[in-house]
Fold Malate dehydrogenase.
Amino acid sequence: MPAMTSPTHPSVLTVCVTGAAGQISYSLLPILANGHVFGINQPIALRLLEITPALPALSGVSMELIDGSYPLLRSVVETDDPAHAFKGADVAVLVGAFPRKHGMERKDLLAKNVPIFQKQAYALNQFASPDVKVLVVGNPANTNALILSKFAPNIPPTNVSALTRLDHNRALAQVATRLDVPIHSVDGVCIWGNHSSTQYPDVVRASVHGHPVLDKLGGLERVAEDFIPTIQKRGAAIIKARGLSSAMSAANAIADHLRSWICGDDRIVSMAVHADGSYGIKEGVFFSYPVRCLGDGDYEIVRGIDLDHFSRKYIDATAEELYAERDEALSLLI
Ligand SMILES: NC(=O)c1ccc[n+]([C@@H]2O[C@H](COP(=O)([O-])OP(=O)(O)OC[C@H]3O[C@@H](n4cnc5c(N)ncnc54)[C@H](O)[C@@H]3O)[C@@H](O)[C@H]2O)c1
Ligand SMILES: O=C(O)C[C@H](O)C(=O)O
């Protein structure tokens, strides 16, 4: 990855976004172009991938990017060819996939979306920068990341992650709202497991200005009845209300995830990453953990959390769902 900290002449960072004419990308691309993710000294080159029928719409998005007159935006490539899109990519944001509709679970998208990630894996493996960082957003994001990683053996699994920062942000916002405190005062929240309705938004160690707040949230029983299902079902609630899945908040979460991952973060955040056996999760699935982002794309899973019985039950349930999704996804590809 090019050095991103030099204040003088950092090299251009090549960022590929798939599904670039879709609704998430429409909110995401300006945030990438204006320097709010990779820094206000970091020039970027955007490579935008779409399916062929969406190329006319993509050319409109590209015109708008040019008209935005972003000083850091050095070039925009539009293409329907993954090999061209991923050429030299330092960062790849894989948004392009079908969204779920009202009444569906995200795993109902496996049959449609998994083949997209298998195909893109081959192209990334061959054409991206050897140190490319890949963020999978398209659902079911954890299992798509697993497929991507499996079929892109040149990319270290630790360079692939899936988005659960949206759930993390939702959890922060719900704690802040319930306790009527500013978001930035809330800490110690994290998301375990799958970006699905089995995810475990953990507030056992939540704090406000360093003071534990589990009791103020009503204790474990109340959290189980109200807080946890609110976060687990938030995506579905937005689809029901909007008729479309979340886009503005998803784009914001992608920006947060990339900024933390690539540039580093003092706070503990949530990312779905390649499980290495931590907390008893079987190696290979992409599992959301509390992570520390160390800068330049390095992260570590937070170790040593003493999980109580309440948390363990949720974590085991979401892990079981991921093992089943993995098996289903792999069977679809045989
Ligand atoms: N992980 C998360 O937190 C999270 C949050 C929100 C949405 N999502 C998921 O992100 C995905 C995109 O959502 P959206 O609202 O932007 O959908 P959208 O339908 O508005 O846009 C998706 C775009 O992807 C394109 N696309 C489809 N197949 C492609 C391919 N093979 N290569 C390149 N582009 C392709 C489509 O043409 C479309 O323009 C969905 O799967 C959605 O469920 C994930
Ligand atoms: O819920 C969805 O299908 C979209 C997205 O994953 C979300 O959490 O909003």
Notes: Residues 18-19, 21-24, 49-51, 54, 95-100, 116, 137-139, 141, 163, 166, 195, 245-247, 250 surround nicotinamide-adenine-dinucleotide (ligand 1) (CB under 6 Å). The CA atoms of residues 134 and 160 lie 5 Å apart. Confidence is low (pLDDT under 50) at residues 3-7.
